[in-house]
Write a structure and sequence with these properties.
Elements lengths: L1 H28 L15 H22 L2 H7 L8 H19 L6 E4 L3 H24 L2 H4 L2 H9 L20 H11 L3 E3 H29 L1 H9 L11
Antiparallel strand pairs: 1-2
Helix pairs in contact: 1-4, 1-7, 2-4, 2-9, 5-8, 8-9
């Protein structure tokens, strides 16, 4: 029974993530959801700045702290190991949902594209960024990344396979294509407002810091294989030679 409950918990966490991710995509792109990054009644500039930075800080801290191996080792004293990843996904999704819910619009337009054709092209490129994000997650095992494989293995009694170092498709050109996809999705827009710029700049800064922290863990996990990979492939800019 406990294994079935863990399975249902894992799938519920994933469903929460998937729905929230789709909402967040529309939130950034300004599509059909009730609240987007630029919609709503603007508050005072300083209030909006403080609230939005606080929301982004909660998201960044949750991701950075809960993803560290030391935290996982401590955390699994209280949370069963098979649902540890699902719990991480649940907290991460809650932080993302909080941003979409409480974000304060800062709608002053810094630049905008007026040509309808170019506007559609930029929206298409931005959506391509989200496609890169999802496809990159599948290349490295989407279902393990979001905790489903762990709860299924727990139900069937299978041991989790050992991590194998691989560099499929996008990973041959850039070490973190998933992060690159987010950068493209957030920065390529036909209309850049103050709020959108704040969101894009803050998330990009976190992506760089998060990638550096993640690389430290990957070196610990894969050793010389990852060190050699890091020497050959750029972190975020495709085809750029590493230093």
């Amino acid at each position: 029974m406990s294994r079935i409950i863990a399975l249902l918990y894992g799938f519920a966490s994933y469903a929460f993530f998937f729905v929230t991710f789709l909402y967040a995509l529309c939130f950034v792109e300004g599509f059909v959801v009730p609240k987007t990054i630029d919609s709503g009644t603007p508050a005072a500039l300083m209030e909006s700045l403080i609230v939005n930075l606080a929301l982004l800080a909660v998201f960044a801290l949750q991701h950075s702290i809960m993803a560290r191996p030391g935290f996982k080792q401590w955390w699994t004293q209280f949370v069963p190991k098979p649902v540890e990843r699902s719990t991480y996904v649940l907290f991460a999704t809650a932080a993302l949902a909080l941003i979409c819910w409480q974000w304060r619009p800062m709608p002053t337009v810094l630049w905008a594209v007026t040509d309808p054709y170019l506007e559609k092209v930029l929206i298409g490129v931005s959506l391509l960024g989200f496609v890169i994000v999802l496809s990159s997650s599948y290349l490295i095992n989407h279902f393990e990344l979001f905790g489903l494989q762990q709860v299924v293995n727990n139900l069937t009694g299978r041991e989790a396979p050992h991590a194998i170092f691989r560099t499929p498709l996008f990973y041959k050109f850039v070490r973190h294509p998933l992060y690159l996809g987010f950068i493209i999705a957030f920065w390529v827009t036909p209309s850049m407002t103050v709020g959108h710029l704040l969101f894009a700049a803050a998330t990009t800064a976190y992506i760089v810091i998060g990638a550096l922290l993640e690389e430290r863990d990957l070196v610990d996990l894969f050793g010389d294989d990852y060190r050699r990979y890091r020497e050959k492939v750029s972190m975020l800019i495709p085809w750029r030679k590493t230093a």
